[in-house]
Design brief:
It is a single chain. With about 260 residues, this protein is of the alpha/beta class. The chain has four helices and eleven strands. Strands 3, 5, 6, 7, 10 and 11 form a six-stranded mixed beta sheet that branches. Helix 2 (about 85-105) packs antiparallel against helix 3 (about 110-125).
């Protein structure tokens, strides 16, 4: 069975959009640190990929890479997918309750009513459009990192949508070291799909690859706030080695696990 290798792609979206670059704004991690991966938590990660062999020394199944993009300083991806809609509905219900209470006040309280309406408008916020094919973002309200509705979208403290990997390409793909593709998944964290690749471990060497990552920027167009896609590229490397995977318990390769004292085979 192939070994599943995970690569976390953590993006500082605010700074990346400001500089229009993922350089120094991307932090990569994988689960192969103890097997030789280098530069964890930086934009220069080198993922170690060990060979996979049967006990007779023949080539076994390939390794599998999984890329998972996340946003730095945003609402955690572990909350339910319905979180945004639930917070929006809660804000709408509160605004309706406040508006109902306001209608029951005496008409002489004009100034107080205007102040109350202003507060209601802030609580409701505004609906945001989505440019291009980002239909999932259309019609949503903007939240901050605490889940509160944001009314002043220009203040820069809003929550950004999660980054989306739209392509994996480069030397490792051209040399047929990795075979990437997008896959559907019931995993709620990855929003139903993710990028994965099988790796040919029979050809040792260090290979570069690139990821095209789509971010979304909140801009005002013709009086409407809109999520507009911004496509940027970052690079990483794979180091394929011919040594087989080592046993995590014995560190002695693909051998049998030791038996506890008094236990017979």
């Amino acid at each position: 069975m192939p070994q599943q290798l995970a690569i976390i792609v953590l993006v500082d979206i605010g700074n990346a959009l400001e500089s229009r670059s993922l350089k120094d704004n991307t932090y990569l991690f994988d689960n192969m640190k103890l097997h030789g991966s280098e530069n964890q938590g930086t934009g220069d990660l080198v993922t170690a990929i060990n060979g996979a062999y049967w006990s007779d020394g023949s080539q076994a199944s390939e390794q599998v890479l999984n890329w998972l993009p996340y946003s730095l300083g945003s609402i955690p991806p572990t909350v339910p997918r319905s979180y945004q809609a639930a917070r929006t509905q809660q804000a709408d219900r509160q605004a309706l309750a406040d508006l109902t209470a306001l209608t029951g006040r005496p008409s002489s309280d004009g100034e107080d009513a205007e102040a109350a309406l202003s507060a209601i408008r802030k609580n409701v916020g505004t609906r945001v459009r989505a440019a291009g094919r980002s239909r999932a973002l259309a019609g949503q309200q903007v939240l901050d990192v605490t889940g509160k509705v944001v009314s002043d979208h220009g203040q820069g403290l809003h929550n950004y949508p999660a980054p989306v990997i739209t392509d994996v390409f480069g030397e490792a793909v051209d040399e047929k070291i990795i075979y990437p593709a997008a896959y559907g998944s019931p995993d709620l964290v990855t929003d139903g799909w993710y990028w994965s690749a099988t790796v040919d471990t029979s050809r040792p060497g260090t290979y570069t690859y690139k990821m095209r990552i789509q971010l979304h920027e909140l801009v005002q167009r013709a009086g409407d706030w809109t999520w507009e896609p911004v496509n940027l590229v970052c690079e990483s490397r794979l180091q394929v080695v011919s040594q087989p995977r080592r046993n995590a318990f014995t560190q002695a390769g693909l051998s049998y696990l030791p038996l506890a004292p008094g236990v017979s085979a």
